[in-house]
Design brief:
Two copies of one chain form a homodimer. Chain A is built from 23 helices and 19 strands. Chain A is an alpha/beta fold and about 625 residues long.
Chain lengths: ~625, ~625
């Protein structure tokens, strides 16, 4: 549908009124940040974007990401103006039963990805645009940023990536209203500096008056027609709080709703300034509420064929991951993989060589990698991300937002723990279990051999409730499971047990192998201990773990190649709380030095000898 | 001391030989990444830098940050050439007792800050340069980056900040060797693109041949003389693996040491290509080992005067934090504060107004904020960082590296938990306890009133063993402690207890107040419960907590405004493991919606009513 300039002015007026009414009704929100963007959003939603709002998941719809998520009321007002929500629904925004949250989340059917942590939206848009490029889909991805968030480095990571991949179906608009939350932005209204930055990062730049709808339309038409291998940014010079005299272009009004007492006067002011009496004819027309048909995202179970290994054979777990990933890529067409310049270490380079069209090199830019993965995932790709576990910490805010967005990203972190050896602590993933456990709805797995790796990877591919994370040891470990071993919802396997067990050792990954060695040492002197592989760090069937442990005396040792808090020890004590037992937690307690894997496992007190000594000590005390 | 070009060539030759010998001896490391930077490091350390190596902490020494930390062997070889370590020490690099780790850490006296997670060094250098600027110290800060790490957004955050603060005593050198780990960088040897980027970010740019020592010297002299309000970057075009024919300028040799078998041939090749027979006169001269005098960093205890509050008065904890911070700033001259555009919400703006010279606005760039704080801390500033707890997750990799660097950053996260209300999950710190607990040597505190906030802040100021973190509730909470209350190493206070206690509630922050309300509800019906304020999440005196709980029956409830894993429940179960009791953990288990604080506390099941119901249920079962 094509609107006249007058009709658009009318819509812009309605949006102004509605963002103020809605934020005042909520008693909170960011009206001034909405007011600067009203004309931009009008030109976008009622002129530029091509989409079927009744089918938000339609794969040819243009996409829109509100990177400046605090302008959510404006997005909601647009959807009221489009006829998808009622005025009552808009006025109930920010209340506990409303999907119209303080910042956008996919609880609202027209939102693909949650925003509100600034500087992430562009990376999400890059992921959506990569999806379109790869699948030759015609849609454009629009993303609205604030100028304040241009200070976030994540924006420039994605700016570089978009240009590198020649994404000419991405159109970014920056609402340059020159104010952040506390005060002026770094460059205020110096649009030349901003233009130079984007140009240096390979973008085509247009500068417009962000309150001139006609100019916005012309520029939006132009950039869409003139796609030529580069992403496009429109820098829109705007005024924060535009339209309300006592707040506009002033500091100190960020995130402040007008009070109920102010409301009437503000609405009168808006009417005086923006309303055209000829519009009286339109007013009062009731728009019938449109239905939304949101595609249900039921994904059918899949199983990637697994390579068989021989018991006892030493296999690199990274290689095993790389192999099953490449098989998955060959067998399942919606799997894509992203890595951050370490594919030769994570072994995603097997996938990259075999299926280059679905592999995305993100260079040394983990935030951009996770952000783009979010965008692809929102478009329906089954996304696998890999890098060193330590460097996933660089993108934790993005992972947090992915969790809030309910996106089933599959994340693999290699080079975990002191086991990596000489490279030292900066390269060791030692907090990763804590990070991924804390995320809501996450699945956290930790294979101890290549069979476990393949099977748990299959489990991740079928996990849709949130982020799944696999912790992958750097070195080679002997195969301990046969090809038919089960890795079910229990979360653990009992690898050694007897009727004479007098203690339990709970371990995973590399320390499981140390536990098995300790078992042999103790067995020689007639002491039998139960050995448990906690291959799933989250969730774990606590009742079954309690039963397993209680059947083997009162001594329990947990042992992990991870810092002592937030990892396996915490899982074990949470599961076993209340039982009459003694738990010794072996873990990395100090900042590790460089050394060989064996030296460092001993240094940390998590090798076979340490486990044996600990158990002997406990059993002596126990007598 | 001033060296001739010939003497510098000799040193460069020695460095080439030593990085190859050392990495081959270690059997690991990154020789090709060292070889590209040898001539740069020669020009830097034997010509440009002005420093007294015997006193690495001397406050007028030029500083050096090796942002491309994997070139550590080259840094160590330089210090051998400077006479501070022996050849034997160099050859023992990467072994478990050596301070010469795989990537640089301050265990080596000449390193201020650990590097090895790419893209952070520039922000550290910005912090050091800000310290010099503020204190009118004459030193320059040099930082060597790789071209691969320019993909990290954190670099551009800091580039913008350096320019904003007109840091003209910062000199960055980029070793543009056109290869990352897996393959070519985004721009390879297109130095024009890189130059345009830095210029757009407000830097003066010089482009040099990174293997021409004379040119490097001239440019380094020039930029040092011509300081004029802008930071300077030298883009050095180099060749990865320079000097060893079969690896130089080739992909596939990142992080690969030459084998023992290859060594002799490689050294012969280097000699043929770089050695001047006239140098025979120098060779074999034994340089006497120089002593290092590292200043001991014993900081004397300080106490900031605390504002008294009246019991029962409702006080904003953020305001209490802002007040004690401003007092600290007035009373103690080495305190500096950094915030990321939310000072009006964290209340650091009180400090900013009163002590503008020691307040650093970092705009919306948390990584740059933490990185700069690391640099200031390494220079001896007592640094306080604040932003929303949720957004600290953006800088977790930097915090991780700060922990490895053993820097005592004081970090404050506000807007925690569902208590923040309408703004929704993107703004809620719900993983922060898990994040900060996992860091080695951290202190994690969580005040429940303004008195606790002041006292715990004083404790943080005197904590030097690592990062300290304070979790600050958004809303106002009634004062429950008097001005003389103790917050000692026990980690908790018992606020309600009697001889008839039949259960214990362990809470902190906002949920402590809910626990106190539940106490009153239960008291009315003759049920007495013990109420514990776990004001210190890490460390906690586990023995004392066990004793406290066991004295009050076998029912324990933990309650926290945080996701269920990694926070208070984990602390409690780890402390109470083995005791015959029942623990119910109340926490946030789902992704929260928007709503009022009261609604959301009830929604999450962590309000007074939920605590009361849980206790009633447990007590009934217990009978």
């Amino acid at each position: 549908m094509s609107y006249t300039l007058d009709a658009l002015a009318y819509k812009a007026y309605n949006l102004r009124v509605d963002v103020i009414r809605a934020t005042t009704a909520a008693g909170s929100g960011h009206p001034t940040s909405c007011l600067s963007a009203v004309d931009i959003m009008t030109a976008l939603f009622f002129h530029a974007l091509q989409f079927d709002g009744a089918h938000p998941d339609c794969h040819t719809n243009d996409r829109f990401v509100l990177s400046k998520g605090h302008a959510a009321p404006l997005l909601y007002a647009v959807y009221k103006e489009l006829g998808f929500i009622t005025d009552a629904q808009l006025m109930a925004m920010r209340t506990i039963d409303s999907p119209l949250e303080g910042h956008p989340t996919p609880r609202f059917a027209h939102v693909d990805i949650a925003t509100g942590s600034l500087g992430i939206g562009l990376s999400n848009a890059v992921g959506m645009a990569l999806h379109a490029q790869r699948n030759r889909l015609p849609y454009y991805t629009y993303v609205l940023l604030g100028d304040g968030e241009l200070a976030e480095g994540a924006v420039w990571e994605s700016a570089a990536l978009a240009s590198y991949y020649k994404l000419d179906h991405i159109i970014a608009i920056v609402d340059v209203n020159r104010f952040g939350q506390r005060g002026p932005t770094m460059y205020e209204h110096d649009l030349v500096v901003l233009a130079n930055k984007f140009e240096a990062f390979g973008w085509r730049v247009s500068v417009v008056d962000g309150h001139d709808i006609n100019q916005l339309m012309v520029v939006l038409d132009g950039v869409r027609k003139a796609c030529s291998g580069s992403p496009v940014v429109i820098l829109a010079k705007t005024i924060k709080g535009y339209g309300v005299e006592h707040v506009q272009d002033k500091n100190g009004f960020h995130g402040k709703a007008f009070s109920v007492h102010e409301l009437a006067a503000v609405l009168v002011e808006l009417k005086k300034r923006f309303y055209n009496p000829a519009w009286d004819a339109y007013s009062g027309q009731q728009v019938p509420l449109k239905q939304i048909y949101k595609k249900s995202l039921k994904q059918k179970p899949i199983t990637v064929s697994e390579q068989p290994y021989t018991i006892g054979e030493r296999v690199s777990l990274r290689q095993a991951f790389g192999d099953i990933l490449a098989r998955a890529g060959r067998e399942i067409q919606d799997i894509v993989c992203l890595d951050a310049d370490v594919g030769n270490s994570t072994y995603t380079d097997i996938f990259a060589r075999e299926i280059p069209a679905r592999f995305f090199e993100c260079f040394i830019a983990e935030q951009s990698m996770v952000g783009a993965a979010m965008g692809m995932s929102a478009m329906g790709d089954r996304v696998v991300i890999a890098t060193f576990a330590a460097f996933l910490s660089r993108a934790y805010d993005q992972l947090r937002m992915a969790a809030i967005s309910r996106l089933p990203l599959r994340v693999v972190g290699t080079h975990v723990g002191v086991e990596i050896g000489q490279d030292g602590p900066s390269q060791m993933g030692l907090e990763d279990l804590a990070l991924f456990r804390a995320l809501p709805n996450s699945l956290v797995v930790y294979p101890a051999d290549a069979h476990a790796c393949s099977k748990l990877f299959n489990r991740m591919l079928n996990y849709h409730d949130g982020i799944s994370y696999m912790r992958v040891t750097r070195g080679s470990l002997p195969i301990i499971y046969d090809a038919h071993a089960l890795f079910d919802d229990t979360g653990f396997n009992i690898l050694r047990s007897s009727d004479h067990d007098c203690a339990t050792v709970i371990a995973a990954g590399v320390t499981l192998h140390e536990a098995l060695k300790a078992y042999e040492l103790l067995k020689k002197i007639g002491i039998f201990v139960r050995v448990v592989d906690l291959y799933c760090i989250k969730p774990v069937d606590r009742q079954k773990l309690r039963a397993c442990v209680m059947d083997a005396g009162s001594c329990v040792v947990s042992v992990e190649d991870h810092y002592s808090l937030g990892g396996i020890a915490d899982v074990v004590s949470a599961a076993l709380i209340g039982l009459p037992l003694q738990l010794k937690a072996l873990a990395v307690r100090l900042i590790p030095p460089s050394g060989t894997a064996a030296q460092l496992l001993a240094w940390a007190g998590i090798d076979a000898q340490s486990i044996e000594h600990t158990l002997m000590g406990m059993l002596k005390e126990d007598k």
